Amino acid sequence: MSWTLTLPLVLPFLTAVAAFLLRANPAGRWVSVVGSALLLIAAGSLMLETLRAGVVVGQMGNWPAPFGITLVADLLSAIMVVITAITALAVSVYALADIDRRMEMLGYHALFNVLIAGVVGAFLTGDLFNLYVWFEVMLISSFGLLILGGRKEQIDGGIKYVTLNLVSTILFLSGIGLLYGMTGTLNLADLSLAVEEVENKGLLTVVAVMFMIAFGVKAALFPLFFWLPAAYHTPAFSVSAVFAGLLTKVGVYALIRMFTLVFDHDIGFTHEILLWVAALTMITGVLGAAAQSDFRKILSFHIVSQIGYMILGLALYTPLALVGAVFYLVHHIVVKANLFLIAGIAQRLTGSTELSRIGGLYKSAPLLAVLFLIPAFSLAGFPPLSGFWAKYVLVQATLEVEAWILAGVALAVGLLTIYSMTKIWAEAFWKKHPEGIDPTPDKLDGPTRAALLLPVGFLATLTIIIGFFPQPFVALAEASAAQLLDPTAYVTAVLGGSE
Amino acid sequence: MEALLAIAIGALVAAAVYLMLARNVLRFIFGLVLISNAANLIIFTGGRLTEGVPPLIPEGANLPAADAANALPQALVLTAIVIGFGLFAFALVLIFRAYTTLGTLNSEEMRVAEPKGDPLL
């Protein structure tokens, strides 16, 4: 059993237990920070191991694949685990100031760490049913986090989030049942070989579409995204930051995994659907954001529109497009989590997230203004920030296959993103506060300010680093895309050599 | 036997979809319970049905009899039932909480998070 592979899973669970036991102790909140830091180290060592070996495989309980449960880390998985750990660390530091005593007593930190464990598990598993279990781990802890505190709008948003996600879970489970019935295996690597021998390709395509819908709900694709803007603006800011950064991306990851490794028998049909879904997701998301007037609601709709770009990369299914998708995933998680954290600080200082009721942040908190501009411009795709390279690669990929309309959509959505970001800028930062409040950060005490601003600064720095030195990140995305398009290494690593 | 189960699954899904289309969220949850049982039956049937041959390995042999029942789908269904039960319990409590704080079970009237004046909605 390889420890580099199991540690990123075990650590968050241990942290959750410790955090739960220490929930009444004021020192308990640091457990989460320490746990996330350790997770980052474990994720880093997994990344190094993956870079060295290509694909890291561990058979749980030493049952050889495909009989036991396999954990696999190829480059995409390792990248996602590292970025999960980075987000977890940033959010857990932010939570020191954001989460109040009552929510800590209700077990916020334990739920948060179980959520992280679920996300990491989903990235690392090499077994379809095990993926379902990790989705459930993630789902049940996210339910808890979403309604923790029990305010009216949280319960309201929670109902929609819970019900629609449960429907997608059922579809996922039915898809697993049908796929198992056709192939007799659940191991992803084994499935990738077994689907080629299925005679009834039509039925296989039906099952593929079931998976597409199930993961489409999780990833918030058009027209399945309605739960997201209904719920993401209701919980605590740390919670919505980690949701915005990670949860939908697990859906995107699952789509990428299934539709490169298993369902590649009828690309002309399945990926064509994904292509148009991607375009519509981008457009509806960005138009929805343009119509909103609440800081977090605007950002929620932008999650939807950005998911469209990643799915565009998957749907084009060329090497360059997949490079774009992987790069976009990483860039988006960093930027989006950061914007939600900034929304939290803005709410602290000005008293609301409703844009018409706040203002004056530029004058009184210039540092925050700069920290907002970095992820906001990156989201819109300004050079030389990370979002520019992500969009550049994707647009180039669409031009390469001469999909002019899609390239136009991708560029136009980028422009409209700038519109939303300037709206937030003009309303929250530029104009005077309507109630004459002067939102200076000095009102917060030192430790609170540090806990709020440090993670924001950290993630903004990361955005700048990816923006100015994109070469190593693009190279990594290229290597990962190559692995996705040619899963031979993945399959032989899982089925061929067991330890 | 497979045909019978397929019809049963179809009936369950039909009833579940009918319930889930209701505006009352309690009916929705009941629909969800039915459809999750349909999903469990799909897995069970997907593993092929065999009669009267338990998957036991006779003494001295290394493998169970060739026509033995498939034990894996039953393990999967068991896991799915346990998880589904947990989620159902949570959903029920959530709905009860929604009823006490929002004062309604009608999903059309749940507009706290997305007020009526909101554009697009």
Automatic annotation (TrEMBL), chain A:
Pfam family, any one: Proton_antipo_M
Annotated family: Belongs to the CPA3 antiporters (TC 2.A.63) subunit D family.
Keyword Nuclease appears in the UniProt entry: no
Main location: membrane
Positions of the NADH:quinone oxidoreductase/Mrp antiporter transmembrane domain: 126-412
PANTHER family: NA(+)_H(+) ANTIPORTER SUBUNIT D1, NADH DEHYDROGENASE
Protein's name according to its UniProt entry: Cation:proton antiporter
One Gene Ontology MF term: NADH dehydrogenase (ubiquinone) activity
Keywords tagged on the record: Cell membrane, Membrane, Transmembrane, Transmembrane helix
Transmembrane segments: 6-23, 30-48, 68-94, 106-125, 131-149, 161-182, 202-227, 239-261, 273-291, 298-320, 326-346, 367-389, 401-422, 450-469
Places the protein is found: Cell membrane; Membrane
Any Gene Ontology biological process: ATP synthesis coupled electron transport
Listed InterPro entries: CPA3_Na-H_Antiporter_D (IPR050586), NADH_UbQ_OxRdtase (IPR003918), ND/Mrp_TM (IPR001750)
Gene Ontology cellular component annotations, sorted alphabetically: plasma membrane
Job description of the protein: NDH-1 shuttles electrons from NADH, via FMN and iron-sulfur (Fe-S) centers, to quinones in the respiratory chain. The immediate electron acceptor for the enzyme in this species is believed to be ubiquinone. Couples the redox reaction to proton translocation (for every two electrons transferred, four hydrogen ions are translocated across the cytoplasmic membrane), and thus conserves the redox energy in a proton gradient.
Membrane topology according to the record: Multi-pass membrane protein
TrEMBL record, chain B:
Pfam families: Oxidored_q2 (PF00420)
Keywords, alphabetical: Cell membrane, Membrane, Transmembrane, Transmembrane helix
GO CC annotation terms, alphabetical: plasma membrane
Main location: membrane
Residue spans crossing the bilayer: 25-44, 75-99
Membrane topology, from the record: Multi-pass membrane protein
Domain of life (superkingdom): Bacteria
Cell compartment(s), UniProt: Cell membrane
Family recorded in the similarity comment: Belongs to the CPA3 antiporters (TC 2.A.63) subunit C family.
Cited NCBIfam families: PRK12658.1
Protein known as: Cation:proton antiporter
